[in-house]
Amino acid sequence: MSSASPRPSPTRYSMPGAPSRRRPQPRNGSGLSRGAARPVAHRHRAPGPGTARLPAAPFPAARFPAPRFPAPLAQLPAARGAVKAQGQPGVVVPDRSRVMASAGSPGPGGVPAVPVASGHSIPVLGLGTSHHGGYSHGAVVHALQKCGIRHIDTAKRYGCESLLQRAIRESGVKREDLWITTKLWHSDYGYENTKKACLESCERLGVEYLDLYLIHWPDAQVPGKSNREVRAETWRAMEELYEKGVCKSIGVSNFLISHLEQLKEDCVITPHVNQVEYHPFQRPQELVDYCRSRDIVFEGYCPLAKGEALTHPAVIQLAKKYSRTPAQICIRWSIQNGIVTIPKSTKAERIEENCKVFDFTIAEDDVEILNGMHDGRHVSWDPTSIV
Ligand SMILES: NC(=O)c1ccc[n+]([C@@H]2O[C@H](COP(=O)([O-])OP(=O)(O)OC[C@H]3O[C@@H](n4cnc5c(N)ncnc54)[C@H](OP(=O)(O)O)[C@@H]3O)[C@@H](O)[C@H]2O)c1
């Protein structure tokens, strides 16, 4: 790790895994307790009586406008260690001896990263994993070794954390070059359970820290307690995991504005990321705008609408127009809309295809065509009824 670096500015993006000067160093995950020095930025509320006065929230959205691609894309460096693969335009492979100096150009195949309020940067393109046949060891190793993937999304719920440990080790990619997200399942919600579950996820993944830990779903299902109460208790444990450095960034998933507003009243640290369904049929722009205004990175899941978007005539037509595949159109569209995205495939050739999205641009009027396809449909969960 290099020496501490300041919060990235809009034009000076840091690499995944870069340290923040506000953060304590990760520990091995035991002996967590409250009361350690807290990072002072991006807090929800003023400190209570007897608490040291903290600087006002920096309203980072104003200082750090949400990335708008393709223009800022050209200013983003590739994820650390990425370098163009020989003979494979648009594909990158790891090379720790070089950091791809692509500022001023996205670089063919380079995966750019966007800043997170924690002081770290998340690669805009990651690889999803899931249960029910959503995991392939060979595909993950291929993604890491041959496609420049440095960001992997998983969850306790998916049951593949230990499998990922093996794939990461086999890939030879170093821990510090990876962005690993996992999620807390609702059976582990609550203050003590959350801390235990996080450490167990770390153990299964074979890591000492997580780059991002998310509350998977806003419904807590704890008898005798409101969802709001349980989410707040759970989030306090997440804050502590963040303060201790076990989680470099913390966030939520499937949270709506109402859930985020409650958390703002009940807790201290604003979630760094909200991971929500996002594809041409599901573009929750009000939530995207809300997150941007509070410096919460919006991460979109199911970018292909689980494959449903790939057969839509408008997507097929645009794929022909740009000589790309429907999957590349959907992924590029998410990225151009400033959304971090995590398509899943269990097939090496599809992962390669899904990664070749940094060497073309969808024209603004075509982006508008895709934007206009929103019909509110969910292909995953719909959290609107969760209070
Ligand atoms: N936070 C949450 O609650 C939540 C919920 C759902 C998903 N997620 C995350 O988001 C990730 C992605 O979501 P998802 O897997 O549900 O949906 P998705 O990425 O929209 O679509 C995946 C489907 O598309 C297929 N596919 C992938 N690339 C393709 C290509 N180039 N051409 C044709 N078909 C292609 C895959 O099949 P093959 O595997 O056979 O290639 C799979 O059936 C998940 O893996 C998970 O990490 C999070």
From TrEMBL:
SUPFAM superfamilies: NAD(P)-linked oxidoreductase
Domain of life: Eukaryota
Record InterPro entries: AKR, Aldo/ket_reductase_CS, NAD(P)_OxRdtase_dom_sf, NADP_OxRdtase_dom
UniProt biased composition (Low complexity): 47-59
Region (Disordered): 1-59
GO MF: oxidoreductase activity
UniProtKB keywords: Oxidoreductase
Family the UniProt entry places it in: Belongs to the aldo/keto reductase family.
Official protein name in the record: Uncharacterized oxidoreductase ZK1290.5-like
Organism per entry: Taeniopygia guttata
